[in-house]
């Protein structure tokens, strides 16, 4: 596997945070550039100029000694007024300054059509050549002194508080957008990983995981695959050993049966034959069980209601009376052969131990239940787990003709659990046993 360092989650998060910060900064800059232009108030329109012209006329007529005081007194919330004695004293460029609209209006308002009026906007070059950040109006008095109006500095027409809120909003929005995309990209391989682990939990033969996503996930996926492979080999190994033992037991059992012919005591011979028969049955069932579980039947979508009907009808054909309540059109994704055998085991038990059997199919909140009720003797609560153990039978002393070798429930549960479900036992309302096959949907 080629490892690209850029693929690690850490790297990836860092890149995304950087993107978020850059996006926020870009949005901020774009807003300043665009909204700054839009929000720049037109000085002629806001009435400041009329006020300024009024103040300038008063200052023009006042003696020098009073002008500075009058200027200070005229300063208000809209602008500050300062008086400068000469061209040299005015802290603004007097030549080459950009002339903006409004001068004529000021001249008219002043009643001096030839008055020198300079208007500055934020961004105009100041005395030092640097752009200024305020609005300024400089009016030359009749005696050559200057009165300057400086409007409060404004940025896009917003207060510092509103600006802070807006900048924060840019950061929040861009962080959220990046986090949503980044989160999705990180979550996807995680979800796939979880789904695969879940699948393996249900089915040992599940296919290996494909390594995708950031490096950490690929490493985890490949470790998972190694583990899955080891478990598969382990399970297969055990199953093979057990199958081999069962298989090899058949020969000595056959020989025992033959030697039994020489036993003279008829009673002893009968007992020996019964034991040998039982062992042979166990071996045969065990072999069938191992064959089923190693046979990798593929999962397909099938009509579970049809499958249950088929199992029930098979027993009816053998003469058993079975009532049913099976809704039509219940579909399921799983291994139909394994489930059909599991169900046949449950119904087989029910008809063996009871004579009135009912089979229900119920779909409710994400799970599917097949209930098999009978009116037989039931199973005492303390044995309801034990009967799932292989070869565990309640009626050991009874005639073997009443049942199998004790693998039926074990096999049924194993098939159900391979689907993520289970088989449980309880009391049937008819007095006997209720066996429930639960399968998760979806
Ligand atoms: N419907 C039932 N009613 C009463 N006992 C039952 C029922 N089903 C199973 N059992 C008990 O559980 C034991 C295990 O059942 P199972 O695993 O199917 O083995 P088998 O049917 O081969 O005996 C049975 O021997 C029997 O004692
Ligand atoms: Mg059985």
CATH top level of the largest domain is Alpha Beta
- Class per helix and strand makeup: alpha+beta
Mean pLDDT: 85
Order of helices and strands: HHHEHEEEHHHEHEEHEEHEE
Oligomer: single chain
Tally of structural domains = 4
Strand content: 5-15%
**CATH superfamily grouping of the largest domain:** Histidine kinase-like ATPase, C-terminal domain
Detail the poorly predicted runs. none
Overall 3D shape: rod-shaped
Within the largest sheet, what's the order of strands? Answer: 6-8-9-11-10
Number of strands: 11
Q: Give the bound compounds.
A: adenosine-5'-diphosphate, magnesium ion
Radius of gyration: 47 Å
CATH topology of the largest domain: Heat Shock Protein 90
Helix content: 40-55%
Description:
This protein is an alpha+beta fold. The protein has 4 domains: 73 residues, no CATH class; 104 residues, no CATH class; 94 residues, Orthogonal Bundle (Helix Hairpins), CATH 1.10.287.130; 141 residues, Histidine kinase-like ATPase, C-terminal domain (Heat Shock Protein 90), CATH 3.30.565.10. Helices cover 51% and strands 14% of the residues. It contains 10 helices and 11 strands. Strands 6-8-9-11-10 form a 5-stranded mixed beta sheet. A hairpin with a 5-residue loop joins strand 3 and strand 4. Helix 9 packs antiparallel against helix 10. The chain is rod-shaped and about 150 Å long. The relative contact order is 0.07. The model has no long low-confidence stretch (mean pLDDT 85).
Summarize the structure.
The chain has 442 residues and is of the alpha+beta class.
């Amino acid at each position: 596997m080629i490892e690209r360092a850029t693929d690690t989650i850490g790297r990836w998060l860092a890149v995304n945070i950087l993107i978020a910060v850059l996006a926020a900064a870009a949005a901020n800059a774009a807003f300043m550039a665009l909204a700054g232009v839009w929000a720049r108030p037109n000085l002629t329109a806001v009435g400041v100029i009329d006020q300024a012209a009024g103040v300038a006329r008063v200052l023009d007529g006042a003696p020098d000694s009073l002008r500075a005081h009058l200027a200070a007194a005229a300063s208000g919330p809209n602008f500050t007024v300062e008086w400068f004695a000469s061209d040299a004293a005015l802290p603004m460029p007097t030549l080459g300054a950009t002339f903006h609209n409004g001068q004529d209006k000021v001249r008219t308002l002043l009643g001096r059509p030839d008055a020198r009026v300079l208007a500055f906007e934020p961004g105009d070059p100041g005395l030092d050549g640097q752009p200024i950040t305020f609005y300024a109006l400089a009016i030359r008095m009749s005696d050559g002194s200057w009165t300057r109006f400086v409007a409060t500095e404004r940025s896009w027409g917003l207060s510092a508080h509103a600006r802070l809120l807006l900048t924060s909003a840019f950061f929040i929005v861009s962080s959220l957008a990046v986090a949503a995309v980044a989160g999705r990209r990180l979550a996807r391989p995680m979800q796939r990983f979880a789904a695969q682990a879940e699948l393996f939990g249900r089915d040992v033969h599940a296919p290996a995981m494909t390594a995708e996503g950031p490096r950490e996930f690929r490493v985890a996926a490949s470790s998972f695959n190694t583990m899955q492979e080891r478990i598969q080999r382990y399970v297969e190994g055990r199953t093979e050993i057990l199958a081999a033992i069962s298989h090899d037991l058949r020969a000595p059992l056959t020989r025992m049966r033959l030697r039994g012919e020489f036993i003279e005591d008829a009673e002893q011979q009968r007992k020996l034959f019964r034991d040998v028969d039982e062992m042979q049955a166990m071996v045969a069932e065990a072999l069938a069980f191992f064959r089923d579980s190693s046979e990798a039947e593929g999962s397909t979508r099938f009509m579970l209601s049809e499958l249950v009907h088929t199992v029930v009808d098979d027993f009816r054909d053998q003469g058993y009376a079975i009532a049913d309540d099976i809704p039509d059109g219940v579909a399921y994704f799983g291994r139909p052969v394994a489930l059909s055998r599991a169900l046949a085991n449950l119904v087989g038990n029910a008809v063996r131990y009871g004579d009135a059997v009912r089979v229900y199919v119920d779909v409710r909140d994400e799970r599917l239940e097949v209930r098999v009720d009978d009116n037989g003797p039931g199973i005492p609560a303390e044995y309801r787990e034990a009967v799932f153990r292989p070869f565990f039978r309640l009626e050991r002393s009874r005639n073997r003709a009443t049942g199998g070798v004790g693998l039926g429930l074990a096999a049924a549960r194993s098939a159900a659990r391979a689907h993520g479900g289970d088989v449980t036992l309880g009391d049937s309302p008819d007095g006997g046993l209720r066996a429930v096959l639960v399968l998760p949907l979806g």
